[in-house]
Records
---
Amino acid sequence: MTNYLNFPGNTEEAFHFYRSVFRTDFSGDGIHRFGDLPPDANHPPVAENVKQMILHIELPITGGHVLMGTDAHEEMGFTVTRGNNMHISVEPETREEAQRSFDELSVGGEITMPIQDMFWGAYFGSLTDRFGINWMVNFTNPTAPE
C-alpha cells in the first residue's frame, strides 16, 4: 500500500521532515522536479517558477509502506485542500518507536488523541502534522500477556 500526498508547493520540506522522522532515504533516483521533464511539443514549456517544484518523490517509512508525493501547483490546474479525508496509519515494531514517531510527527502540529494504551490492546494516538497530514500511530505487541 502506498499513500500519495499532494502539497501546495512544500513537498520537499514535508518529505525532508518525514525522512528525519522515519530515518530512511528517498527511493529510486531521489527527487524528481518539474524542470527535469523532457520538452514535449504537445505540452507547453514548464514555467520557470515551477521548475524547482517536486514532480515525484518516494520515501519508504515502516513495514514496507511507501509515501509518494508531488507539488500539486495551481499553475497546472490543481487546488490542494486540507481536510480530514485521509490518515496514514503506521505500525512501529516497538513501543519506544511508536512514542518517538508520534512525538516527532506532532511537532508544530495538533494532537487529536494523545498516544496511550487503548482498550483494544494497542498503544495508539492520532495527530495532524504541521503540513495538514493526518497520522495514526498504532503499536500492538502480539507477545504481550493477556
---
Amino acid sequence: MWFNGTAANSLALAALCQSYHSVICPETAHIETDECGAPEFASNGSKLLLGKSENGKLTPDSIATIVNRRSDIHYPKPKVISITQSTELGTLYAIDELVAIKQLAQQYDLKIHMDGARFANAVAALNKSPAEITWRSGIDVLCFCGTKNGMALGEAIIFFNKALAEDFSYRCKQAGQLASKMRFIAAPWLGLLETGAWLNNARHANRCAEYLENKLLEIEGIELMFPRESNAVLSHCLNQ
C-alpha cells in the first residue's frame, strides 16, 4: 500500500524502466500534467514521451508513431505504455482497444502500466470484471486508487507480471513509502473490497455524472467537450 497516486504511479513506472528508457503516455496523462516530474525523479530520468490521443486515449497508431520515431542511441528507448482507466477526461478504453494496445506492446516488447485513479468507475461503467480489463487485456501493472473511491488515503499497486516486482519493496522503503503502521493504511481496503463498497461507490459516482450531464444539456448553448462515459469530475460523490 502506498500513500498517494503520485507515489504509486512513479514507483511502478520506475520498476518497469531504466533511466535511459521512456514512457509513452497521452498528453493529458496525470503523470505528465499533475505529478511534478515525480515519474522521472523516481526512475532517475526515464523520459515521458507524449502520444497523440483521441478523447484522452492512446491508440496503437499514436504509440507506433513514437516507437518508430527514432531508434538510435541518442534517444531514450521506449519501454512502457502508460494508460489511464478511466481517463482524465472521463472516457473509457473498451476491451478491444486494450487488446489492440497489448498486441502492439508485444510487437515492440513494451510493458503496459495502468493508472487506475478511477479504475472502479471504469469497472462499473463497462460492466466488466477487473480481470477482463487488466491482465486478460495485457496490463502488466495496475495502480488502484482508494482515495477517489472513498478512502482517506491509500493506493494499491498490483503486479500481474510478478517478475517485474522483484525488489519492489526495497524501492518503496527507499522512497519513504513504508509506513510504520502500514496496517492502518491496508485495513480499510478490506472493508472497501469485501463489502462491495468500492463498486457501489463507483456506480453512485457514475450516476451522479450522468445526472449532471443531463441537467447541463437542458441549458441552451451548453455542449460537452468530451463524451461522458464514467465519472472524472465527481469521483468523491458517494452515498452519505
---
Amino acid sequence: MDLAMLREYLPLLIPLVILQFALGITALIHVLRHPAYRFGNKVMWVIIVVFIQIIGPIIYFTLGRGED
C-alpha cells in the first residue's frame, strides 16, 4: 500500500480507530467495575475485550454484561 492509497482511506480509518478505542475502553471499564456477568468471569471478559479488537467489546455488551 502506497502513501497515496493510505491518504485516500484515512478519512474512513480514523473514525474506525476512534470507535475501536472508545468501545474497547468503555467495555474494559465496565468489565472491571461490575462483578455480575451472564456467563464467564472477569478474566475471560478482559481477554475477550482486549484481544478481539472491535468485535470483543460488542460481544461483551450484547452477551456478557450482567444486570446492573
---
Amino acid sequence: MAKPLKTREIREMTMAEINAKLVDLEEELFNLRFRNAMKQLDDALRIRIVKKDLARIRTVLREHQLGVRKMASAATEDKT
C-alpha cells in the first residue's frame, strides 16, 4: 500500500509532476469507489487516504495561484 503524501513532498514537485499525480489520484479514487460499490474493495481506508492526498495537492496548487507560498520549482525559476 502506498503511503500518504506529505505536503513538503508535494511542494518539492514540479508542476508537471503535480498535475500527473493529480490525474493518477483522481483515477485511483474513481476505481476505488467503483470497486467499493461492487463490494470488491479489500481496503476501504485507501479511499480516505486518496481523498486527503487530493485535497493536499489542490491546497498547494491554490496557495501557489494566490501567491501565498511558492513551490520549490517556482522558487528556483525566479532566482535564475
